[in-house]
Amino acid sequence: MAWLFVANKWLRGLVGLSWLNGLNENLRNLQAQEVPNCHIAMGSSILNYLYQQYLAFQSENWYQWGPLSLGFLWLVIPFLFGQAWCSWGCFYGGLDDGFSRIFVKPWIRWFRLPGPLRDLPAALLVVLALTSLTTLLPVFCLWVCPFKLTDGFLDPVGNTRRLQLAILGTVLVVAVILLPLLARKRLFCGLICPFGAWQALTGKIHPFRVTIDPDRCTQCQRCLRACPTFAISHEELRQHQIGPYCNQCGECIDVCPEVAIRYTAFGRDFPWMPPGGALAEFADHRVFALFAYLLLGGAVGSLCLY
Amino acid sequence: MLVLIEGFGLGLSTGIYCLGACAPILIPFVMVESRPNWRSNLWLTGQFLLGRLIAYVLFAAGASLLGQLASSRLPTWLVPAGLLLSGILMLAYAAAPREAWPGLCPAVCRRFPAARMPLLLGFLVGINVCPPFLAAMTRVIDLHHTGLSILYFLAFFVGTTLYVLPVILVTPIARIARLKSIGWLACVIAGTWFCASGISGLVH
User: Fold this and answer.
1) A250 located within any domain
2) How many CB atoms lie within 10 A of CB B39?
3) CB A285 within 8 A of CB A250
4) What is the ipTM of this complex?
5) 3-class DSSP string for chain A
6) Which residue of B has its CA nearest to A131?
7) A240 in a structural domain
């Protein structure tokens, strides 16, 4: 199965580039660039998208506007990938992931989060969505996004622009480079990214789950230490549960000595791939991800043709 | 009668923008304070709306007096000051203990529990001037009549309230403990955002 892991790492970059290219092609007809076309900003600007689509429906060319096709992609992505998008599809998350893997052992041993901090992405999602609607601007892109490669939406000149660039640079250095490097955790994905919170919600329609077998689990906590996004807490592990922000990366499955954690469909084993059976090895998200990449490529490709 | 219809029509047609101005303050608060029963959530939202109504009535009277004085200017610091106060209030609410501290401030905590804050928050949101509010204010300045101005704003309030009321739909999911935690964090983030916006407005 290791070859699949390597193949998927490369595919993540390829699918990311083609997906971005597809979006740009698709959004060429966007008449007013008032909403961002990056998937991380989509969740936090959802109300703006809806407002833009409302305006589009009042125009003659409503079908040419981006939000409708983005909405279609949104439906496709949670169904194909669910929360696994963050681990297997998101090319921005790939940077976070990459920095977290440079050192073999963590310099900072950080395994649990204080209090309600784990819900920070969801809270950010709520506030960003509402303030974006109030200001009719993508507040995430302006004030939080560490991956901002263009100056779109930024103030043209002045102290506000300098402040925005300083904040975005700080988030990049601290949350994407420094802390992932030292703690071997995906800090941006786990604690900031509002799209992760969005996927935690919409990904519920996706059948794949990471499930702990209570009969096999010995509470050794290796999964808790290995989880790069703090998705397993002590309390949840005691109840043999995985948190709602699980990105289904499979790190916990790989480190579990008792083979107590596995991929399931809605918590049940795949009937044609029972544990220990000949096909058990293929009950793996990496196999599924390959098919999902192909289907997503087809969806984006068809949008480009359209 | 015409004034009532006009105010209601303006509120109804522009209420979605009012919701945009109210929601960042109201929704995090409702997420934390909501209970899994409709009556208490209705009471919570009602207090918020009452605060907003008081602000509207005072504003209508003030704007009408301005109109009668042939002046249509509002002090420029009013809106950012309102934002700053809202932000400070949200941060104070988030920092306040969920239960009263009997040893520290029994009298104050009994008199001013966090649950009484929606009235004040509603009032501060009420003086947060959004585009529909400006349109209504411009109209009442032209009315040159305090009573009619208040009636106009009352009708405007009813029209916009129809957009705010759906926040009580949070009731069925209010029992989810995680919702409180998300709401509390949202209060901190939104409070910081409003403080920064207010300070920025006052400085500029």
Assistant:
1) no
2) 10
3) yes
4) 0.81
5) CHHHHHHHHHHHHHHHHHHHHHHHHHHHHCCCCCCCCCHHHHHHCHHHHHHHHHHHHCCCCHHHCHHHHHHHHHHHHHHHCHHHHHHHCCHHHHHHHHHHCCCCCCCCCCCCCCHHHHHHHHHHHHHHHHHHHHHCCCHHHHHCCCCCCCCCCCCCCHHHHHHHHHHHHHHHHHHHHHHHHHHCCCHHHHHCCHHHHHHHHHHHHCCEEEEECCCCCCCCCHHHHHCCCCCCCHHHHHCCCCCCCCCCCCHHHHHCCCCCEEEEECCECCCCCCCCCCCHHHCCHHHHHHHHHHHHHHHHHHHHHC
6) B24
7) no
Out of B27, B184, B200, the one facing A130 most closely (by C-beta) is: B27
A115 contact partners, CB below 8 Å, separation of at least 6: none
Q: Inspect the interface and report whether the beta carbons of A123 and B183 lie closer than 8 Å.
A: yes
Percentage with pLDDT > 70 across chain A? 76
For B128, which DSSP code?
Answer: S
Cα–Cα distance between A237 and A224 in angstroms, integer?
A: 8
Cβ distance B20 to A126 less than 8 Å, yes or no, reads no
Domain that residue A179 falls in: 33-200
Residues of A with CB under 8 A from a CB of B: 116-117, 119-120, 122-124, 126-127, 130-131, 133-134, 160, 244
pLDDT digits (tens, 9 = 90+) for A249-290: 888 988 999 889 988 888 787 777 776 677 777 777 777 777
A19 within domain boundaries:
no
Closest to A126 (Cβ–Cβ): which among B21, B186, B200?
A: B186
- Reference A81, options A252, A304, A294; nearest CA is A294
Q: Which of A1-10, B95-104, B138-147 has the lowest mean pLDDT?
A: B95-104
- Tally the residues of chain B: 204
The secondary structure of residue B103, as a DSSP letter, is T
Contact B171, B41 (CB under 8 A): yes
